[in-house]
Design a protein that fits this description.
The protein has four helices and three strands; from the N terminus they run αββααβα. It has helices spanning 3-22, 59-71, 73-83, 99-130; strands at residues 36-42, 48-54, 91-96. A three-stranded mixed β-sheet has the order 1-2-3, sandwiched between helices. The longest helix is centred in the last third of the chain and has 32 residues, at 99-130.
């Protein structure tokens, strides 16, 4: 299967899984609508697909949600396989992706450093004018 075809399948799977979660069709109580699917990586032989899940929820709730999604993987595969026309549907494996949360905290730290440096510069200027 071509690289572009695999990429289109990755994007399509990400969209379909996100729709199932947002519509509340996954009935597992551990699965929250606040979970987001960051990316999907399908193997070239269409045997498996790694689905990376993240959220701004606390880490233990994200892990519970991923466990719920893994428990409902068969249902999700069946629902999406009805919509997609592919010869072999990949087995879904859901994984926690903490990259989005780590990136957000890094941006917050950078903003805090910038704010502190501006305050230090303002304090330095006021000390210079007093002398």
């Amino acid at each position: 299967m071509g690289q572009y075809r695999i990429q289109r399948l990755n994007d399509q799977l990400r969209d379909e899984i996100s729709k199932l979660i947002l519509k509340g069709e996954v009935k597992d109580p551990r699965v929250s609508t606040f979970l987001s699917i960051n990316r999907v990586e399908v193997t070239t032989d269409l045997g498996y697909a790694k689905v990376y899940v993240s959220s701004f929820l606390p880490d233990n709730q994200v892990e519970k949600g991923v466990n719920g999604l893994n428990a409902a993987a068969g249902f999700i595969q069946r629902e999406i396989a009805k919509k997609l026309r592919i010869r072999q549907f990949p087995k879904l494996q859901f994984l926690v992706d903490s990259g989005m949360k780590e990136g957000f905290t890094m941006v917050q730290k950078l903003n805090q450093l910038e704010k502190e440096s501006k305050e230090n510069a303002a304090n330095q200027d006021s000390e210079d004018t007093e002398d």
